[in-house]
Amino acid sequence: MKALELFAGAGGLAMGLELAGFESVGVVEWDSWACATIRENQSRDFPLARAWPLIEGDVRALDLSAFPEGLDLVAGGPPCQPFSLGGKHRAHDDERDMFPATAHVIRTLRPRAFIIENVKGLTRSAFANYYQYILLQLEFPTVTRRRREDWRDHHKRLQREKTSGRLHDGQGLAYNVVPSLVNAADYGVPQRRERVFIVGFRDDIGITWSFPRETHSPEMLFRDQWVTGAYWERHSVPSRLRPSPPVGLRARIDRERAQPRIGLAETLAPWRTVRDALVGLTSSEKSRPRAILANHVYQPGARAYPGHTGSPLDLPAKTLKAGDHGVPGGENMLVDASGACRYFTVRESARLQTFPDGYVFHGSWTETMRQLGNAVPVALARVVASSVAEKLIAADMAGAIRRQRGRVA
After folding, report:
1. d(CA 110, CA 331)
2. Which of 25, 41, 288, 343 could bridge 46 with an S-S bond, Cβ 3.0-4.6 Å?
3. Catalytic residue list
């Protein structure tokens, strides 16, 4: 199966696609530092990146004639700053809004499916109408905005197209679009990272799809830590060094120890924590990381203050962020078991984003942290891409059976 990735960044989504069985026909990214990261890994012959056809440049200037029409997948994470909670919230008035460019690629290449990832801020009430406008552009990419037409008027025209049902009746290009707001921690990523995924399948394929079910739960982490103690045993933390359970939860802990619950949540794995993610990474006697693995270098200057408190060791990390001027308040800091704080190293941050240890990042600490803050967690990308791949393969197999039956008849 062939895939084109737009707005690739440092390669998190591209790596997930590769792990799901997609072969890249293009990895497009305009940022020179992110491109340098991909090139450095290709020069090291990193297996998942070695064959990516990297294209450094603006998606809006991409020569789409170089790619086959009807390829299997278009994927990407359009720049999130127009919708980010930490940005200026300009949405359609922001020149970095790349959803129109994404719709243009889909309109031109007519892929069988697409995967679009973006920040939770896209679903904010302030953007409600524009969010629905984005979804309709992706559902009906051939219903384009007319010259001098305001986006609101275009939105109304798309709404009329949807209610008519014409394009979904085989009279034009249309996609069945499923938007989902998910927490990466629910899929084994050691980070509470809420993101929007918009997945679409071309209408003529006839695919029914829903977002994959969660594989991890906070309930099981609570049970592992405070009911059975399996979490502390797994990490060889002696009883005297284990933190006390939260005061407000002690009644619940006693109740569940006396009568363990068995339900859906108990069939899942526990949320993965910062401690889980950092297993095997070496620190010095002063708990300062050492550069044994690439990018695992101590960064000085961290300090905590109200509103800038860092990620506790025994919970999933806060959402890693890029920030306009380096690292923002607290999200990229670790609070260890003693209460001391320090910045995550680049390698630790890569672990939190589920990048393999062999994948290196190019640039200064601030620059590489920006790349990681913008990345799609590899493990989550793999989950989504695998579910799409399974549906496409099943559709191919069903089509082959129908053709075979037709030849026999």
Report:
1. 39
2. 41
3. 80
